[in-house]
Amino acid sequence: MDLSFDFSVISKNITYFMIGSYPHGRLGGVALTLYLAVASCILSFLGGLFLGMLSVSKFRVIRYSATAVINAVRGIPLLMVIFWMYFLLPALMGRTMPESRTVIAALTIFTSAYMAEIVRAGIEGIPRGQTEAAISTGLHPWQAMFYIVLPQGLRNMVPSFVNQFVSLIKDTSLAFIVGVSELTHVATQINNRTMIYPAEIFFFIAVIYFIICYAFTSLSRWLEKRLAWQKAI
Amino acid sequence: MIRFEGVHKWFHNLHVLNDINLHVRQGEVVVVCGPSGSGKSTLIRTINQLEPIDKGKLIVDGMDLSDRRTDITKLRAEIGFVFQQFNLYPHLRVLNNITLAPIKIRKLARKEAEEQAMALLERVGLAEKRDAYPAQLSGGQQQRVAIARALAMKPKIMLFDEPTSALDPEMIGEVLAVMQDLAQSGMTMVVVTHEMGFASEVSDRIVFIDEGIILEEAEPSEFFKAPKHERAKQFLKQVLSPMH
After folding, report:
1. What global pTM score does this model have?
2. Which residues 139-168 of A are in CB contact (within 8 Å) with B?
């Protein structure tokens, strides 16, 4: 059995790996993976924050509805959510829609549910006395949340956020199932065309995913330090 | 200024406030004392509705707290509250702890709010700590900043919920001194405390509460010389000489 590797398949197709058939065709490869990840990250951060705040609302109807949504989404496989969005979203909107956008919607809904749980725990982790002190000075409860509770809670949430976002980056690979030409999809295409280099190709994209995730983790470590306020003397 | 009329409150089956009738006039300093679990903290926390009441009438600064339409957020801006655990905001510097509410609620310009905050820090003797974070201060210093933070809203009433109970003994004096200074300036104050020295020297009236019931209400000289109720006698004996 011949175990020698030939990585020339990578260098020959490197542009396709990186940006797909852009600029002649659609953007793809690593660039599209990054686009999916960044867009879903930002949207699910906002979605998670919103949903998480609803889930600690003092109004029971809001709290229960938010919790129901969170639990429902968390009980469904991501792949189902992707299929749903792929078939449902164009029907709901009444027009066709780029697949990448339906995938961003799916990733956002899915990740928001997990982010919401992190936000809820982060908010509940701040002592009740902080809110009491804030409203005692005449701040409205939402101002107490915004100026006092969230800034303290968010800092504690950062490590969990990073975890979730790293998962999200890797989950973008599921987009290949609905034909979005991100990195994994591009890799399967090249593999189908060349037939004899699967090990080289899939090893290469594993490294790419690792580099993206590692870069992101390092960035957030740095951010975490920047965010640190003086906790003790 | 503050009027309780037949106020009741329950925590589940526990009757924490039982038919409270109390009137605090403007400029008065009232000390509330009693054994732990007697309901004194709950009593003071109803005044700015950190704890809502279940029955009866509570009127504060002309506003009826039992009326759902009362704008409680607006009322709270007129009432300063000092907590046992200080509850300073750990992510903000001392100065910003004090200026936050005046800027957001009173709509003061930052510069004006900071000048006012500095004057208050001056008054509690902590001007040089303006840029420190709460965790860098001692307990006594934190509590004095907390008092300054409450005063920054120019409240009509100041409430103190065991302000010295979490402090090391050597820091109690500095906080009591600030409170005494405040009392002499004519502030209406309700103070839950075990500091009987403060109660006898500074307060106009002492309210003794046990099991949610006001058992005794008297001027300090009267209360300390001849407490009428048996439980008040016991309580005084314990706080004044805890060894026996």
Report:
1. 0.87
2. 139-141, 143, 147-148, 151-152, 155
The architecture (CATH level 2) of A15-232 comes to Orthogonal Bundle (1.10)
Amino acid code (one letter) for B118:
M
Cα A106 to Cα A118: distance, rounded to the nearest angstrom: 19
Report whether A197 contacts A99 (CB < 8 A).
no
Q: Which two tokens stand for residue B235?
A: 């309580």
Q: How many alpha carbons fall within 13 Å on the CB side of residue B28?
A: 18
pLDDT of residue A9: 87
Q: Are B192 and B33 in contact (CB under 8 A)?
A: yes
Residue B79 structure tokens: 């009432």
| The two three-digit tokens of residue B174, written as one number | 């500095």
- Calpha distance B112→B120 (Å, rounded): 13
C-alpha torsion sign, points A136, A137, A138, A139: negative
Q: Do B77 and A138 touch (CB under 8 A)?
A: yes
- Quick check: A151 and B104 CB within 8 A? no
Average pLDDT of chain B? 94
- Going by C-alpha positions, the residue among B215, B219, B216 that lies closest to residue B205 is B219
Closest CA to A202 of A188, A182, A214: A188
Domain ranges of chain A: 15-232
Determine contact, residues A128/B81, Cβ cutoff 8 Å: no
**Percent of chain A as helix, strand, coil, to the nearest 5:** 80, 0, 20
pLDDT value, residue A97? 85
Q: What is the mean pLDDT of each run of 10 residues along chain A (233 residues)?
A: 79 89 87 95 96 94 96 95 92 88 96 96 96 97 95 90 94 93 93 91 95 93 74 41
Our CA-based measurement puts residue B195 at a distance from the nearest CA of chain A, in whole angstroms, of 23
| B→A interface, C-beta within 8 Å | 48, 50, 73-74, 76-81, 83, 85, 87-91, 100-101, 104-105, 133, 135-136, 146, 149-150, 152-153
Find out whether B61 and B177 touch, Cβ atoms under 8 Å.
no
Q: What's the CA gap between B16 and B9, in Å, rounded?
A: 6
3-state secondary structure chain B: CEEEEEEEEEECCEEEEEEEEEEECCCCEEEEECCCCCCHHHHHHHHCCCCCCCEEEEEECCEECCCCCCCHHHHHCCEEEECCCCCCCCCCCHHHHHHHHHHHCCCCCHHHHHHHHHHHHHHCCCHHHCCCCHHHCCHHHHHHHHHHHHHCCCCCEEEEECCCCCCCHHHHHHHHHHHHHHHHCCCEEEEECCCHHHHHHHCCEEEEEECCEEEEEECHHHHHHCCCCHHHHHHHHHHHCCCC
AA identity, residue A226: R
CB A27 within 8 A of CB A218: no
